[in-house]
Amino acid sequence: MARVVSTSSLAGMVWLPRNVEIPTTVEELNGWKPPLFFNWKPDFVQPFFKYGRSKLAQVAWTKALTRRLGEDSTIYVNAANPGAVSTPLVKDKHLPPICPDFVKDLSATLVNNVCWTSEEGALTELYLAVAIDEIKQKRLRGRYFHPQSVEVTNPYAESIKLQENVWQLCEGLVKKFL
């Protein structure tokens, strides 16, 4: 029995513009400009939309692969959100340099006291990778899990059209290497 676990994020449900679409070519992917908010330039929200869309794509790809493998496959494909994990990315990279020190201190306090440790954040992915008997018994395939193995539905990822767009994009990206 083989397992494939994609790492996604809650951003794939939250940080998305309306009528979210996944491009089908690299040109569309690189050329996409999320909507500007509040006419701020540069718009600090745009990177979050791009990140959210990439994490939605992880879940959609998981569902597309599961469908292609079929019900009788011995390959179990799932996606998981590790949750808010205290990593250098969260600790150091999310605030603009112009933030006052008290905001940075407050942010650091929140990250250190609210976020999961790296070890805790890895638990859901580890469960999906090693709980072989339970995964088989519960037929856990093509699903999406939040921290501590709680299954959730990402309503955007349920779209077959979106799943197929993600698949088409991925095929285009790896085609020249096959």
Comma- or semicolon-separated keywords:
single chain; 178 residues; alpha/beta; four-stranded mixed sheet
Short account of what is shown:
With 178 residues, the chain is of the alpha/beta class. Helix content is 49%, strand content 11%. The two termini are 25 Å apart.
Helix content: 40-55%
The structural class is alpha/beta
Q: Any low-confidence stretches, pLDDT <50, length ≥5? A: none
Q: Could you spell the SSE succession in H and E letters?
A: EHHHEHHHHHEEH
The DSSP helix count reads 9
User: How big a fraction of the residues is strand?
Assistant: 5-15%
Average pLDDT works out at 84
Q: What is the count of β-strands?
A: 4
User: How many strands, what sense, and barrel or not for the largest sheet?
Assistant: 4 strands, mixed
The largest sheet has its strands arranged as 1-2-3-4
Note the overall shape.
Answer: globular
Radius of gyration: 18 Å
Cα-to-Cα separation, first versus last residue: 25 Å
Question: Can you offer a commentary on this structure?
Answer:
It contains 9 helices and 4 strands; from the N terminus they run E-H-H-H-E-H-H-H-H-H-E-E-H. With 178 residues, the protein is an alpha/beta fold. A 4-stranded mixed sheet has the order 1-2-3-4, sandwiched between helices. Helix 3 (46-69) packs across helix 9. The mean pLDDT is 84.
Secondary structure topology:
Blueprint: E1 2-7, H1 11-14, H2 26-31, H3 46-69, E2 75-80, H4 88-92, H5 101-114, H6 118-121, H7 123-130, H8 132-138, E3 143-146, E4 150-152, H9 160-174
Parallel strand pairs: 1-2, 2-3
Antiparallel strand pairs: 3-4
